[in-house]
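Minutes, project huddle
Topic: does the predicted pose make sense with BES bound?
PN asked that the exact inputs be recorded in the minutes so nobody has to dig through chat later. Recorded below.
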Amino acid sequence: MLDIAFAKAVLPKSGVVVVPLTEDAELAGLAAGLDKALDGRLAQALKAADFTGKKGQSVNLPGPGAGLKRVLVLGLGKKDALNPRSAEEFGGSAQLALVKEESAVILADTLDAALAAHIGLGARLRAYTFDKYRTTQKEDEKPKLSALKIILKDAGLATADYAKLAAVADGVELTRNLVTEPANVLYPEEFAIRTEALKKLGLKVEIFDKKALEKLGFGSMLSVSQGSAREARLVVMQWFGASGPSPNGKKGRKLKEPIAFIGKGVTFDTGGISIKPAAGMEDMKWDMAGAGTVTGLMAALAGRGAKVDAVGLIGLVENMPSGTATRPGDVVKSYSGQTIEILNTDAEGRLVLADVLYYAQERFAPKYMVDLATLTGAIIVSLGQEHAGLFSNDDGLSEKLLAAGKATGENLWRMPLVPVGESYDKNLNSPIADVQNIGSGKGAGSITAAQFLQRFVNGKPWAHLDIAGVAWTSKDGPTTPKGATAFGVRLLDRLVADNFEG
Ligand code: BES
Ligand code: MN
Ligand code: ZN
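Predicted holo structure (tokens), as shared on screen:
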């Protein structure tokens, strides 16, 4: 793991030094001192390279003198456009440029402590790897960078800021680990067992097995797992951050107006009897990203001691075809009491969420509910990988989510949602049950799915994030190596921090 530390601003006399420079910025502070120690060769090199400080620009000086191994100048972009997100992107690009070094020092004496802390976060997020199944990886293929020191005047302040961000990074890493695991390793029971590790952060974790879910009446969710040899699980994770200290061991405590986060956890989605084509089916191991994100988010909130009452609920199932699988045309009874005609067994995520959403609002009376789900391929057609789809019955909640998206770079785009009984919703009326699980019209697949969910939120304030296009990526991003992104952990942590703490 990459160790990030902050220390006071003293020019290093050896090793690798990184100089962040904004556009048109003169060499100032330690950078000016460095240039002097190098007899002006730093300024000369920047001039020769036409370095202007634009994002992504870099000038590399190997063996520059003054006892140093290497000086790397990296562009920070426009000074007045500096913000936590651009600092993170800088940290990510520094990590990438330095992977072959063992350690490096970043001169951050011209930046404030908060930006320095976010540089650390970006580097840490970009350094993520998942190698547990590689047995033949050679030493020189592994990233070497293990320590990054960021130096500035307010090192103490930056250390305190970073401690909170590191808890969020821990949550992101937990999510990435869960989401990346293959489905033969991470099936519902195993996923549930892994959530028990969150107890040590002060969360209350409850696991409902198949028998308990049958007793509750989760007929919709259980119809998805009935074809699989792996049994379903529901996990409920409670964080009493506003209403008092750790609840472990204390019975009868109740969350006060919590924010509820609900995740789709299909550990593998074959489509069931409405089976998917073979090409690309391996991607459906990611179909539990919503649940992975909710789990990492709860760890982040607890890890940084967020002053909020929150609850995470994840519905865990595997969707397989077999002699016991649900058939197209089957009718099941959901936890809400509404009956559902299942016309397509590949529209299974909504069947899971229907029961978990209804349960969440009934048991916890949350102030707001937010669900995350890799719900539809159609959202990738609409929004690609740039935005997740936001569907909500509450304008205030939508505004808060959109703002948190802008701040973290985990961007959302609001999509239509109409009241029950109107246009898009009407396509869900079944000839023989209360509702059918796919629309009878053509098109608008993501909206139809959201409309289906809306029938199970009992009119409560709620938002649905369709993360099918953003949960994993096939190309490296500034703070996200290719693979699981953990999209939503930082977004929803920010939603909480900006709106629901104090
Ligand atoms: N898990 C899929 C959605 C998905 C597709 C996520 C591609 C990520 C990438 C979901 O369960 C699904 O199969 N949805 C169907 C719905 C359809 C049957 C109405 C879809 O999108 O095709
Ligand atoms: Mn499906
Ligand atoms: Zn699915």
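Observations noted during the meeting:
- The first helix runs from residue 29 to 37.
- The two ends are 33 Å apart (CA to CA).
No decisions taken; revisit at the next huddle.
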